[in-house]
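Field reference: "sequence" (input) and "structure" (output). Example, Phosphonate ABC transporter ATP-binding protein:
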Amino acid sequence: MLETHDLRKVYPTGDEALTSISTTIEGKEFVAMIGPSGAGKSTFVRCINRLTEPTSGTVELDGTDLTALSSAELRDARRNIGMIFQEYNLVERLTVMENVLSGRLGYVSNWAAFRRKFPQEDIELAYEILELVGLGGMENKRVDELSGGQRQRVGIARAVVQNPKILLADEPTSSLDPETSHDVMELLTDIATDHDIPVLINIHEVDLAVGYADRLLGLHDGELVFDGTPEELTDDTHGVIYRGEELTTTEAKRAIPAGGRR
Ligand SMILES: Nc1ncnc2c1ncn2[C@@H]1O[C@H](COP(=O)(O)OP(=O)(O)OP(=O)(O)O)[C@@H](O)[C@H]1O
């Protein structure tokens, strides 16, 4: 279970990207964070694994406060957090298999990691996950020979091979065409369900969020102003998230978290 308490981020420029975000994500939930450009979606996702250092507040993963860890401890803890990036963050000149296995680097000794020697069971797991993401038989292809959608599948496979406790995705569909975006969202849904891993993504396309997520978190100006199901995203709540409007109906107010805009 992931829990954030009063998570706040102020960048050195003085921009307050997150005000005080408290929320919980658990089970096999597929959660999509939505909101206008600059609302703080990316900052929130990146604060969870401290790719961006939060200014204050805590992030607990299964009871461990990640914000209190030393950098060595954080390296170990990050094994539990799979991360999928907008621009894939793959090593282009390496093969699909080498990229996927890099998700196991945190589990092998430094020497084995240096020599890229992985146990047989890691290799078998990687094959299994490549099948799962629809890349069976492509393990020896170089990543720079793949399409954007295939690259993102490699990125997803690399995150899943870690056996993480949560999967985070920072704009996983932004670089993809609409059809491929649907495929990737479907894949993430299947992973949440079949692997029992909660998935948290931040996403621009509201229709994709509504079509696939179990739950939506709406950010406006660094404030969590909506926490509800896709069905609860009405014109009214949409206005709260995207235009900072006040709520007018009681139905909409039900979907606003404690501490959020009322
Ligand atoms: N490295 C940074 N240094 C200073 N300010 C930053 C930095 N990164 C983000 N910000 C600011 O923090 C706020 C939130 O940015 P963030 O990228 O988290 O929003 P977002 O909702 O993900 O936006 P988008 O949908 O456009 O990617 C914005 O005002 C942005 O300008």
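Residues 11, 13, 15, 17, 35, 37-43, 202, 204 surround adenosine-5'-triphosphate (CB under 6 Å).
The chain has ten helices and ten strands.
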